[in-house]
Amino acid sequence: MSPVVIAASTPTLSPALDAVRLTLHVLGASVWVGGQITVTGLLPTVRGFGGEAPKKVARALARLLWPAYALVVVTGFWNIAALDVSGAPSAWTVVLAVKVAVVAVAGVAVFLHQRATTRRGLAVWGSIGGTASVAALVLGVLLAG
Ligand code: HEM
User: To test the ligand 1 pocket, which listed residue (26, 99, 139) has its Cβ within 8 A of the most ligand atoms?
Assistant: First the structure.
């Protein structure tokens, strides 16, 4: 049996507009996903400050998260418009559809987490929001090919 040879593709620079589009998309994605992970990691320390500190930090995070979410959704549709989606293999289209659904779940879950009044609500919606956000990241890298 002849060995499988995977031809390495020659690296090329992205056209300028693609670079702007993907930079804005990845910037939005990194604030949305990275912001959640960072604040979750800082929370035990913030709790040590006592009083309203966790609530104040959560409110400050929300002021960063929602503009980032808006940016990643707008550039996400720009991504679709910039690509020849009609010629894409069905597996790519399925991943895109799953990704858009996962991004919607992430947004709703983070919204419900920010409005939760019980520790259980905070924990459940927070973990669904965080997991869906990381899943969107992985699906995005898959789509980028
Ligand atoms: C939390 C939300 C999201 C995250 C974390 C995210 C993350 C990513 C990442 C990391 C990439 C790879 C970029 C690269 O390697 O060049 C990507 C690509 C992509 N994303 Fe998103 N994304 C999100 C939302 C969306 C939405 C809402 C859409 C569609 C409406 C979308 C459509 C795409 C497409 C089509 C690509 C491929 C772009 C290309 O190859 O030119 N993304 N995404």
Answer: 99
